[in-house]
Amino acid sequence: MPWDFAAILFSLGALAPLRGRAKMRNLLARPVLNSMDRLSLYASTIAFQWICLAVTAWRAWARGLGVAELGMTIPDAKRIAIAAVVGATILGTAHWMNLRRMGRMQPEARGFFQRLAERIFPKSDVERLVYFALALTAGLCEEFLFRGFTMAALSQAGFPVWAVVAASSAIFGLAHLYQGRRGVLATLAFGILFGVARTVYESLVPVIVWHVTVDAVGGLVGPRYLLPETNRLSS
């Protein structure tokens, strides 16, 4: 494996998780975040992810990885469109119902997720708009990084398909270390599902749509169930 590919994979699986965990600790240590704090958090995350994508795409294309190897094609438009819509509907509905279930729990029983929601979920129309841009960014950038580049780099290195899916999913899970153990495990499960789909459909398009849907539902619907009325109406 080329040194730059190895460096990118190390950054995704080790440096990025450590950075995210440290950032989350600082975030949770603060008693409250105001609107400008959240907007700054969204904007800095958007910028960071696009920089990561740009650097990774540069090295991938410099090393000869083509658009097909990176999953940036649509070999069967109708089949992929159906998969994108059906999968997004199922995953979005399931996530919605899970948030609704959590909303019936006492806030103290929600633990870490409740503290995270109170700080990062959008609470005004402006925040919701920027958060949606963040969801789009995460879907596009993370799928390119983990299901596009990572799977292509591992395949080029000679790993069998099952190992490519498993390893890319593990790296994807670790990248979400800031969400705690449950978040890592949940993200790992999503990574396996997305990795299999990317392999089956030979395209990133369905998994990008699924990813954006899950993130958007979490941030745009989550406040309805997890935040007190006074917080949801504040700006």
Structure description:
- The chain is mostly helical and 235 residues long.
- The chain is 79% helix and 0% strand.
- The protein contains nine helices and no strands.
- It has helices at residues 3-29, 35-62, 77-103, 112-120, 125-156, 161-174, 180-201, 205-226, 229-232.
- The chain is globular, with a radius of gyration of 18 Å.
- The termini are far apart.
- 35% of the residues are buried.
- Give the mean pLDDT: 91
- What is the percent of helical residues? over 70%
- State the major sheet: none
Number of strands: 0
Straight-line N-to-C gap: 49 Å
Give the topology string: H per helix, E per strand: HHHHHHHHH
**Low-confidence spans:** none
Per DSSP, what share of the residues sits in E-state strands of 2 or more residues?
under 5%
Q: How many helical stretches?
A: 9
Radius of gyration: 18 Å
The secondary structure category is mainly alpha
Overall, the morphology is globular
Compile the SSE list and pairings.
Layout: H1 3-29, H2 35-62, H3 77-103, H4 112-120, H5 125-156, H6 161-174, H7 180-201, H8 205-226, H9 229-232
Characteristics:
mainly alpha; globular; 235 residues
In short:
The chain is mainly alpha-helical and 235 residues long. The protein has nine helices and no strands.
